[in-house]
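hey so u asked for the seq, here:
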Amino acid sequence: MPTLLEEAQKAHAGLEKVRMANQMRHQLAVIQHRTGEWAKHKQQHAQLQPKTGYLPMDESAVAQLAKANESVRALCTQAHQRLKESQNVEVLSNDDLWLRLLGAAEQANKVFADAIRAAWSMLIRELGDLESLTAISSRIPATPANEKALASYRELFGRYAALKSAEMPASAASAGQLRECVAQLREIHSSLTPAPASVQKFFKAVDAGGASLDLITEEVLAWLKSHDDWARFVVRLRAGNVWR
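ran it, structure tokens below
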């Protein structure tokens, strides 16, 4: 029969096991929590890192990025050393080291994102503005050739607008796609045939239901002969002016 001392020792050993198990569960919970906090910033960093190589950045942005990354690396080294020495994740809470590390990581990601957005905006400005389809349609007559070109312009302008409205390039191909869209849109734009005011007035009347003969001037006739298809037009009497 075990003695009282043996029973006490056995109970103490059991309590120690429970304490160690509780401590282990607490440690695991803290580690999981810390890992989740760090993973969020690390994932964002991993997503932003490649984008910094898509476009050239000015020297000040490059210097800021280097400084921000160095701050994170220094705190990471300090945190690693503490964990190595103590084997207790709670040591990261000493003098707010963990909070400082998370703050530095967040700031570095912000510097990354701001630099990428700035470089993307600079590229868009360098490529210049393009005339909208509405503006073009208001001054370019709807001839068969123009209509075909405008259909291509409309489709391409949608892709251009989607790229331009993005805060930052979606992939390494984005900058090239934007440049290509702008080049193609300008090529289409240059192929459109403009018209003098008299021709624009004639087409507006046609679109409104019909153009009177006084709008068909020599200038209009000459332009239509050079730039349009005669077979598209017919002459009709007004409904109330038919002789019986």
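The mean pLDDT is 77. The chain is about 70% helix and 0% strand.
lmk if thats what u needed
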